[in-house]
Design brief:
The complex is a heterodimer of chains A (221) and B (519).
Chain A lengths: L6 H4 L1 H13 L3 E7 L5 E9 L5 E9 L10 E4 L35 H22 L11 H10 L6 H11 L1 E2 L2 E2 L21 H21 L1
Antiparallel strand pairs in A: 1-2, 2-3, 3-4, 5-6
Chain B lengths: L4 H18 L2 E4 L13 E14 L2 H6 L1 H29 L3 E6 L2 E6 L6 H26 L8 E14 L8 E4 L1 H8 L7 E4 L1 H5 L3 H4 L3 E3 L2 E5 L7 H6 L7 H14 L6 E4 L13 E15 L1 H7 L4 H25 L3 E6 L2 E6 L6 H26 L7 E18 L2 E7 L1 H11 L5 E4 L1 H6 L3 H4 L3 E3 L4 E5 L3 H17 L4 E4 L5 E4 L7 E3 L8
Chain lengths: 221, 519
């Protein structure tokens, strides 16, 4: 898999149309695209505020191998923003746009580029407000595992972190290492049914993330 | 482009460094010096008499049908002739210097004979009388069909700081000091009269004092009703001036400047004031803005002649002048018309935009001025303590031109809006921005209108401490509230702004709002 070609290497037409989409976004000025191995685009998002101030932020989009099945990662290229947990920025200067499992972006779609760019534009706008007021405007996920728990609660799967934690350690680890869960184990929702016949579709995308977070937490403890 | 705090900070830092390296010297004016050879880094402390000659009924002249036709050509020529003649009176006849022409107002300074206040006072009131006579009798003789001019002459004696800090490389003197301020202020209400301040009155001889009557703290010679022979008063001293000679010069100048040579057209692109002249002017619907440094004159007075501190004061003035001009010209493409003492006159128009848009943008220009002063100059360059600006703004037709000859030219902007904007600015204190109801009503952005309150006393809308950062804080609160709404929708407008609300405006690009997270 490591040597498998990237999406843009499979079709130059797709790469060209992606460049065109980036170049046509009215709020984004494409600076350059690097496509030797990984497809990476650098450009500037720009917007005005009612008070008359102009804002420009250089961002870098790093496209995954399987784009557009997975959206590109967006980075604060000039490190303008300071890393803070509440400011929704990773220490790598990657912008936290959305919890991938929430499925906010329309993947495998020609709209994905606009969605990611415009979400980044809104993120920058919100981040400006956050930097001055100290409060993130609008809805945001909680930090760490709580965000995933929230998602599970929203999907009516569980309402207690300890239940899912215990369940994962019982049914999704081998010698303490995360693995695919046993689909014939009882569903953590407490219905008494097997996972396969109950909440498998809801839980499957979250297992890896939950395991990873729990693993990190264990290491910290 | 619009105002940017970082850009403003950077350019001011560079300019402050440059001026510190260059250095500014303040020295008293002596017999060997004159104001003609004043460099931009030298300032002079001048003890002399300030004379202001104004046309008090300029607003009526603007409306008069005889002067209005052909895009105010007649009024423009009249202003040109007057500037030339009043300058002649001040400079060759009375040995003084023209400081500036500010619209219909002429500012002259008499500083000879040196160290002889009685001699200066005697000359000054005669110069005032000569100016009055030109404005009335000479003009009536040359232009018998024109409406009569109502002159107002203000004269005061005192010390002031004179510097040469022209906008466009032309020799353009400014003077700072109470004497100049008083002379300008006592003009108001002094129609058809010569009004002098008490300092000047004290130096008059008995005969000259007898010409004046006390009027509050000032003294007034009511020229329209006096029984004195005004020309005879001038003849009492040895000066080479007669009414007849003035009439001849005005007639000669009129003959070489026929109306057919003057072209006044509507501006179809942003006016380049440097290419205007006595035969070329423009008419434009524009916003007139006056930005005045409140308390600067009293600051200079309080320094009590301390030359090091005065040099600091000139440096502060230079930085204000530099920054305000750049805000106008670089950040907003407005026209920095003229520095008038510690005040800047600005004209803002954008051909192609409708009037409402020009007025909306004009408020942005005003806010930018205040932002530069409050958030940059006062934060980083308050050498003698914080200073604030009072800003007045109105919108209307303006006649824009340039009077004089190469090397000694005065830009002129005449219009009702200019007069109202100036009056408004004069009534406001520092860190206040005033706009007329016309400008306020054109503003559609609630974020801005919410910052203004109606001041019934001056029939204008007034905002206190309004800066871009204050406005942005209000915008932050509004946008945060909109984002917190469950039905928040964000869009990108054609003007490049993000709008957040519960419904998308027409012709905008929808933007995606996501829920960010952090692992």
């Amino acid at each position: 898999m490591r040597n498998a070609p990237h999406w843009h290497q499979l079709s130059t037409a797709r790469a060209a149309s992606e460049r065109e989409r980036l170049a046509n976004a009215p709020y984004f000025t494409l600076e350059r695209v690097m496509a030797e191995r990984r497809f990476t685009a650098i450009g500037t998002l720009h917007f005005k505020r009612g008070c008359g101030k102009d804002y420009r932020f250089r961002i870098r989009l790093e496209y995954p191998r399987h784009y557009p099945k997975t959206p590109p990662q967006v980075f604060d290229h000039d490190h303008v923003f300071t890393f803070t947990l509440d400011g929704h920025l990773f220490s790598t200067h990657e912008i936290c746009l959305t919890l991938p499992e929430r499925g906010e972006f329309t993947t495998i779609s020609e709209h994905l580029t606009h969605e990611v760019l415009s979400a980044t534009l809104i993120w920058c706008h919100k981040r400006l407000i956050f930097d001055r007021t100290g409060k993130w405007p609008g809805v945001a996920e909680k930090h760490g595992i709580d965000a995933v728990i929230d998602l599970l609660v929203e999907r009516h799967v569980i309402n207690d972190v300890t239940i899912i934690s215990t369940w994962l350690h019982q049914h999704a680890t081998i010698n303490g290492r995360p693995c695919n869960p046993d689909i014939y184990a009882p569903c953590p929702c407490g219905s008494g049914k097997r996972l396969k016949f109950c909440h498998r579709d809801d839980l499957q995308p979250l297992f890896k993330r939950l395991m990873h977070i729990l693993d990190l937490k264990k290491q910290r403890d | 482009m619009s105002w940017n705090e970082q850009r403003s900070t950077n350019r001011l830092r560079a300019e402050a460094q440059r001026i510190t390296t260059t250095g500014i010297t303040v020295t008293p004016l002596t017999r060997e010096m004159d104001l003609h050879s004043l460099s931009t880094t030298d300032a002079r402390l001048v003890t002399g008499v300030h004379l202001y000659a104004d046309i008090a009924n300029i607003d009526e002249l603007l409306e008069d049908e005889r002067l209005r036709r052909d895009n105010h050509k007649r009024l423009y020529r009249l202003l040109h002739l007057l500037r030339r003649e009043l300058r002649h009176i001040i400079e060759p006849v009375f040995g003084g210097d023209k400081i500036q022409v500010q619209g219909a107002k002429f500012h002259g300074l008499l500083f000879r004979p040196y160290n002889d206040p009685e001699g200066m006072a005697e000359l000054a009131i005669r110069a005032g009388i000569a100016m009055y006579t030109v404005l009335t009798d000479a003009i009536s003789e040359i232009f018998p069909t024109y409406p009569e001019l109502v002159p107002a002459i203000g004269i005061e004696y005192g010390e002031c700081l004179v510097a040469n800090i022209g906008v466009r490389g032309d020799r353009e003197l400014i003077s700072i000091g109470n004497a100049a301020n008083t002379a300008a202020k006592i003009l108001v209400g002094g129609d058809d009269a010569i009004t002098i301040g008490s300092a000047l009155y004290d130096y008059l001889n008995e005969d000259d004092r007898a010409l004046f009557e006390a009027s509050g703290t000032n003294y007034r010679l009511d020229c329209a009703t006096t029984e004195e022979d005004l020309e005879a008063i001038i003849r009492e001293i040895d000066v080479d001036w007669t009414l007849k000679s003035s009439i001849k010069r005005l007639q000669d100048e009129k003959d070489v400047l026929p109306l057919t040579d003057i072209s006044i057209e509507e501006a179809r692109e942003v006016i380049d004031i440097t290419i205007l002249g006595k035969t070329r002017a423009k008419i434009v619907a524009a916003a007139s803005i006056f930005v005045d440094i409140d308390g600067y004159t009293s600051l200079v007075e309080s320094l009590d002649g301390d030359q090091d501190k005065l040099a600091e004061a000139v440096k502060v003035l230079h930085l204000f002048r530099y920054e305000l001009q750049r805000v106008a010209e670089c950040d907003h493409h407005a026209i920095a018309v003229q520095h008038q003492g510690d005040r800047l006159q600005v004209l803002f128009h954008t051909p192609g935009d409708d009037d409402d848009e020009v007025m909306q943008n004009a408020i942005d220009v005003c806010i930018a001025f205040n932002s530069s002063v409050e958030d940059v100059l006062n934060k980083h360059h308050a050498l003698l303590g914080p200073l604030h600006v009072a800003i007045g703004c109105d919108f209307g037709d303006a006649l824009v031109g340039m009077l004089g000859v190469a090397g000694d030219r005065d830009p002129v902007v005449i219009g009702h809006a200019t007069l109202f904007a100036e009056q408004l600015q004069l009534q406001l204190s520092g860190n206040h921005l005033g706009v007329t109801p016309t400008v306020y009503d054109a503003q559609t952005d609630e974020l801005i209108t919410e910052q203004f309150t109606h001041n019934e006393g001056i029939d204008a809308y007034e905002a206190t401490g309004l800066t871009v950062n204050i406005l942005e804080a209000a915008e932050d609160a509004k946008d945060a509230k909109a984002y917190n709404s469950a039905a928040a929708i964000a869009s990108y407008t054609t003007k490049g702004a993000i709008v957040v609300g519960t419904r998308a405006p027409a012709q905008t690009v929808p933007l995606k709002i996501t829920r960010p997270y952090c692992a």
